[in-house]
């Protein structure tokens, strides 16, 4: 789909190019995945591009730019086919109790809390947005550091809450230039449009629901440290730090296992897909059958069936982009630990929070 016919709107396939071509007070939005980036003024985007489209065709995302202030937000996802007894709104109450406790500890006042719902019979999905009174977070890295601190310093001391948080709170969303689905939009082929209950879908309400304000002047900028007290940082693929403590015993064993294959550069866990990614110092590509100029091989560890496979980060060669080895079983001791963790019981009468 082309959006270049609208006056003043620029489109590109590359985010770096979008940054270069932006001139004046304009935002960068994304359409669909793989993305078409749209550079536009807010009113032009809403009234000329987004609003005229049918809701089921709006595959639009906000680009949360890595170096600009933003609001606090939370992404909750519950697979109702796997956990039919869990109500995502109960999860929300538990998570918000912990988050708001943390905000009070920093003497921060919540001016408005918005809950955007895109749930259906198969998936419970909520986005929670906190607008603080006269405050903005320095950038998305500080929002992530605050959320990780909440989890490590408070939630982890309450095992039932920690298990639920680990399963249903997406802690991977606090990344560089994150694409975040906007109110009034859906993912392609899903028709799960995100709405805020009781609010009319108009320019004013859409604008206030965005994570990153384009204009700010009177707000004070606030920061958060990582759980260990170090400065906030993005948890990128090259970082040796983990986004959060999934299970220390498994983590250590996975690193030892991967080190036997190739030295480990970094490791991270994604709760949305229940997978670990382990970046290796390995340039000899299994798919290209040759050596890359940079370290590109990595392991994907699957918690669900205790298996792993090799993949490659390189996007230049088709064999690398689509390449993946067959799954292999993890060593028995690691598999047994994962099986035990997977058997976390959820009762239909669980009292979350």
Could you please describe the fold and organization of this structure?
- This protein has 353 residues and is of the alpha+beta class.
- It is 26% helix and 25% strand.
- Among the domains are: 72-222; 248-342, no CATH class.
- It has nine helices and 18 strands.
- Strands 1-3-2-4-9 form a five-stranded antiparallel β-sheet, sandwiched between helices. The chain has a five-stranded antiparallel β-sheet with strand order 12-13-16-17-18, covered by helices on one side. Strands 5-7-6-10 form a four-stranded antiparallel β-sheet, with helices on one face.
- The longest helix has 18 residues, at 88-105.
Give the gist of this structure.
The chain has helices at 15-21, 42-50, 88-105, 140-153, 159-168, 203-208, 248-259, 318-321, 332-342; strands at 10-12, 27-31, 36-40, 60-64, 72-79, 110-117, 123-132, 135-137, 178-181, 195-196, 220-222, 264-270, 275-280, 284-285, 290-291, 297-302, 307-312, 328-329. The chain is an alpha+beta fold. Among the domains are: 72-222; 248-342, no CATH class.
